[in-house]
Amino acid sequence: MDIRENRAQKINVTIDGKVCEATTDDTILRIARKNGVYIPTMCYLSKVEPIASCRMCVVEVEGVEGAILSCQARATDGAVITTKSSNLHKQRQNIMKLYNVNHPLECGVCDKSGECDLQNKTLEFGVNTQSFTAKDMSRPVENWGFVSYDPALCIMCEKCVRVANEITGNEALQISTGGYKSSIVNVKKDFNDASLGESAAVCPVGALVSTDFKYTSNSWELDKIPATCAHCSSGCSLYYEVKNDKIYRVTNDFEFRSLCGAGRFGFDFANENTSKDNEAFHKAITAFREADTITFSSHITNEEALILQKLKEKYNYRLVCDEAYGYQQFLKAFGSVSGESLYGANLESLSNSKGIIVLGGRINDDNPMVKYHITMASKRNRARVAYMHPIEDSNISNIVTQFIKYEVGSEEGVAALLANALLQDKELPQGLRDFLNDLDIGNISAESNIGEEELAALVQSLDKKEGFTLVIGSDLYNHPRAVQIAKLIGAIQKYSSFDVLLVPPFTNALGVALICTLDEKVGNYTVGYNAVGDFELSCLGEGDLDMPALNQQEGTFTTIDKRVVPTNVASSYNGYVLNDIANALDLKSIYTIDYTSKLPVKAGFKAMAFDELPFGFDIAGVEHRGYLLVSKPIKAIEIFEEIEEIPAYDGAIIYRCNLNGQFGMLSNRTKALKQDEIYLKGSVQFAIVSKISDGDEVEYIVDGIKYKRIFKLDSSLKGTIALHQNYDMGLSSTLVSSYRFSHLTLEQ
Amino acid sequence: MHEEIIHTNNTSKEKQNYTMLELGSTPAYGWPAFKQVVKRSLSRELFVGLWLTIKEMGKTLFLGGKHTTQYPFEKLPISPRYRAIHNMLRLLESGHYRCIGCGLCEKICISNCIAMETRYDENQRKEVSEYTINFGRCIYCGYCAEVCPELAIVHGGRYETASEQRASFSLFDDMLTPIDVLKQQQEFAGFGSVSPNADAAIKKTPLAY
After folding, report:
1. Which of A7, A54, A282, B23 has its CA 20 to 30 Å from the CA of residue A508?
2. CA nearest A132 in B: which residue?
3. Confidence of residue A403 (pLDDT cuts 50, 70, 90)
4. Mean pLDDT, range A222-251, rounded to an integer
């Protein structure tokens, strides 16, 4: 719960003669918007704190001298507010005139034309003469890579700087102040795609525009296809903007939500130039009749997952999904203690938290949206953020208040220590209390390398605060002791004031975990759907039968927010889909989306048809997209096992981690994100331990796949753990059944 | 239900002011009609007419008074407002094409016959990479010329659209004023051109320098 909400009292204010109910923590602007009263703004952005640079939102309050900035000012009970008067209109008109001083009259070739705030407001306030002037100067366009910056068009609203600071959090943009000479400067040259993309999205004028999109199309010619991002489990809402069956760009409801770099720039992964290949289709049917196993990637819609489940029920296939199996088992074990089928937290509660613990995931790389929400909590609520991981991450050092390092493989002990620390003064059932009392704290501390004082400091820092979230990353899901860890986390969810967020490791892993009954091991003959198999159905265009990519399908995803969200077709597809195969195998359904209403109600889905699912936000910023899953009560069985001996991970270790917003087979297909050379990145110590040096080509095997990589020293890393990436491996990148850390064995 | 039917009289009562021509009487039967024919055929008037023809023939043949247009070698000038095959104009100073790639012509085109592609060039300017007009669809409505903010696309007078290939006229380079005849480029005076009182309509803005 938000503390502010608790303290907020109900009040009534009158805005333009309309009596509005509100709370004391709401600003006048927010109250007005909620009640449908229009106050013009230029710099206001709902998702960040008020910027207050434009002064367009001035209002008059009875009994208060001078104009008041409605974006900042909170309302008091009984206030009488006027938003429209001739005086205010004149002020706003003058502001617009000032914005228009020397603004180039290049609307014809400006990408923002047609969706430009400056155009709209200039027309709205009838600016047809100019009474202000300033000496113009040369301001060349700067190409920052993903976006281009045109200082001549910039109105210095600061929205871009705010999103880079408050949301994406890497502080890539700064203001260079100097009166009329002020401009925005880009201080971070690498890994800035998310910040730049976000800043271009919120830019009210054409100052920041995607370089790739620049000058290719006018905004009004593009059709917006509402869809869901297919890259990670956050399932962000976005619009594919399409003309002549080509996706030109991705936009989103930037007023309320954000997108990471992959979501915004990595959109061209469609499987193109496909046709109905009858021969391949018949081979596929034969393969399905022959097979005893279907392996699949969790890059799949809920409907397709249900089709696979129905096929399993009918033909007794084994269903193997490496990307979701560990997560499913974890969720099950978690529920067996917490008593709920789903975890408690979501992204919004995360951003409202005052204390956050991140355990077992390199969150900046694994799931950008989780990192952004932690950033919001850190910047707005000054939240305490404890980051527990074997590798320190310098990219998030600006939001992490305490880094707790533990040894690789000791996650079970860490979870036990954490449970012990967080449940110290809580009322617990006898079994759990005994288990915690019996823990050999000293031994676990020594093995995991976490000092007791570190956890004590953590607990102390959370004192007198409320609203806590524990973020669990994907290191734990495939841990050999995952079940026991999940139970301990379940206990934290149930008995402490922490809400747990089990970050699903891949796109729709949560959906697959809820819909399918997964098996662990493959059989003799496998059909792979976007996964390795004896017969491969692939959306990458290189399998035995083509399948549509996720932006060529309609269906639903289940997101980290436990929300079932619709996605639509952005790029046409002419080949066969999974439903055609299912129909040939006697599951009768005309369209894939016929399965939307048949998703298992027992697992928390609703029997809603695809076409009934809403999409979008209301004026107050509340999301109305799809529906929320219902968490089902589970009978809690609290049986904990002894903590196992912690295995020693000595020597050179590699950590499976796709860096910089790469998420797997889809992102590496896109023009903007494709990398030519992929490195194994490690520290100097790692190089010494593994006896390699910078630039060496190394060969090693992980999850049964042979990798050939060039080793690169990375000064931001420490210790003997290197970062291993697998996103370029096509279908093989879905083979991720093992624990994320593994010993490096170099092939000679 | 009873309906009352009202008859209105539309004939005007006013007297019309006609002037009658005095054409004499028309012959009613054979003999007078025959006399009229003989009289008219053999009177001097016939030779007056013939003389005029001979005179004009002489002028045409020997004094250069020919009025025939030797189409297709010769063409009559047509109104600047005539809407035929489009021309793409250049800037007289630099010779660069005027088109800024704003896409308004493509958008306004009601028969959907204009297609263009633009891109970000090395000089960070907007460049027109593809521009075509499908003249099989074009209805020569003139909206493109009217909407063009730069008067870059205009209607020319080239009204012959016979060709071996439909694409013959439709590429940007075909429509563009050839660079060697840039000086002959005429300022367009048809649809969308600057109005005669344009100067008077300009509002003054402050200039501090």
Report:
1. A282
2. B206
3. very high
4. 95
The tokens describing B152, both together, are 């870059």
Classify residue A230 by burial, with Cβ atoms within 10 Å: 0-12, 13-18, 19+.
Answer: buried
CB atoms B120 and A215 under 8 Å = yes
Q: What is the domain extent for residue B57?
A: 30-62
- Euclidean distance between CA atoms B9 and A738, whole angstroms: 102
Examine residue B20 and state whether it is found in any structural domain, yes or no. no
Q: Kindly indicate whether the ipTM for this predicted assembly is greater than 0.90, answering yes or no.
A: no
Question: How many domains does chain B contain in total?
Answer: 2
Q: What are the structural domains of chain A? A: 3-84 (3.10.20.740), 278-325+509-628 (no CATH), 326-502 (3.40.228.10), 653-743 (2.40.40.20)
Residue B126 and residue A215: Cβ atoms within 8 Å?
Answer: yes
Interface contact flag, B208 A133, Cβ < 8 Å: yes
Whole-angstrom Cα distance, residue A350 to residue A365?
A: 18
Residues of A in contact with B127 (CB under 8 A): 215
Q: Average pLDDT, stretch B119-133?
A: 89
pLDDT at B10 over 60: no
Give the integer Cα–Cα distance in Å for A51 and A65.
Answer: 22
Q: Tell whether the model's pLDDT for residue B8 goes beyond 60.
A: no
Which B residues 96-115 touch A at CB under 8 Å? 100-104, 106-107
Q: What is the pLDDT of residues A448-478, one digit of tens each?
A: 999 889 999 999 999 888 899 999 999 999 9
**Residue type (1 letter), A717:** L
Partner residue facing A216 (CB), from B118, B149, B207: B118
Decide if A328 touches B, using CB distance below 8 A.
no
The confidence score (pLDDT) of residue A2 equals 45
Mean pLDDT of chain B: 84
- Whether B36 and B101 share a structural domain: no
Cα end-to-end distance, chain A, whole Å: 56
Mean pLDDT of all residues in chain A? 92
* Chain A residues inside the 8 Å CB shell of B103: 217-218, 221
**pLDDT score at B4:** 45
Provide CB contacts within 8 A for A741, sequence distance 6+: A390, A408, A409, A475, A649, A653, A654, A655, A656, A721
Q: Do A109 and B149 touch (CB under 8 A)?
A: no
Instruction: Judge: A216–B117 Cβ closer than 8 Å, yes or no.
Output: yes
Q: How far apart are CA A561 and CA A578, in angstroms?
A: 27
Structure confidence at residue A748 (pLDDT): 64
Considering only CA atoms, give the Rg of chain B.
31
Query: How distant is the Cα of A66 from the closest Cα of chain B, in angstroms?
Result: 30
Q: Which residues contact A304 (CB under 8 A, 6 or more apart)?
A: A529, A553, A555, A578, A579, A592
Contact flag A135-B208 (C-beta cutoff 8 Å): yes
Assess if residue B159 is contained within a domain: yes
pLDDT at B187: 82
